[in-house]
Amino acid sequence: MTIIEEKYNWARTNFSPNNPDTIVIHQALAPSCTAQDIHRWHLERGWMGIAYHYFVRKDGTIYRGRQEYHRGGHLLGDENINTLGICLEGCYTDYGNLTEKTVPETQIKALHELCDDICSRYKIVAIKRHDEYPSAKGKDCPGKYFPWERFLRERGIIVVSDAWKEKAVEFVRKFQQATGLTVDGMAGTQTNAKLDEVIKKWKEPPKDNAQDIKKAWNDFLNAIK
Ligand SMILES: [Zn+2]
After folding, report:
1. How far apart are CA 58 and CA 100, in angstroms?
2. How far is the CA of 121 from the centre of ligand 1 (A)?
3. What protein residues have CB closer than 5 angstroms to ion ligand 1?
4. What sequence ranges are listed for the domain N-acetylmuramoyl-L-alanine amidase (predicted)?
5. pTM: predicted TM-score of the whole model, two decimal places
6. How far is the CA of 139 from the centre of ligand 1 (A)?
7. pLDDT by residue (tens digit) across 4-37?
8. Max CA pair span of the chain
9. Is domain 3-154 annotated with CATH 3.40.80.10?
């Protein structure tokens, strides 16, 4: 993987430090543009210059934006802390005649390579869409035509739908109720310790006191029917 270094004329150079633990993916909302175009657009907004750390073109070429150790400006204010912003060339949402419904495979492949490289150098705990951030509520970035779930699946990240998350809370509550814990639906230290205890117990021959757990499990299965 090659990263193309660009020379940028920054409006200001008093960057805050950045210690990346999260990758955030964006789209340029433009079918064809260069890293220098984005730099210019961001200068025109009165920013320091290109707000992203990387720009991935459709042909798979990767350009550096800001240095990784400089805080980005691709989110709002403190949301930028310890993130790396990657922008994809393209307009992968409904946006008049700019709309593009297909993301080139070469671009997705380059994005994977870039993420692999970043993850090999930092302890990255999350890869997020721009629109997962509160300041981007209602926006569609990196765009509904970007195959987000496929991308995460290919990175070994399983997407849990909100519906499942609700079921999980339901199960935690039932489990807490059945095992005599405080029923708050949150799997904290006590609940996790109890779960460890139960799992351990299940590896042993069934005992009478496993009835409650069986009931909790059956209630959970009934709940998700
Ligand atoms: Zn964005």
Report:
1. 12
2. 24
3. 26, 130, 141
4. 10-143
5. 0.76
6. 8
7. 999 999 999 999 999 999 999 999 999 999 999 9
8. 73
9. yes
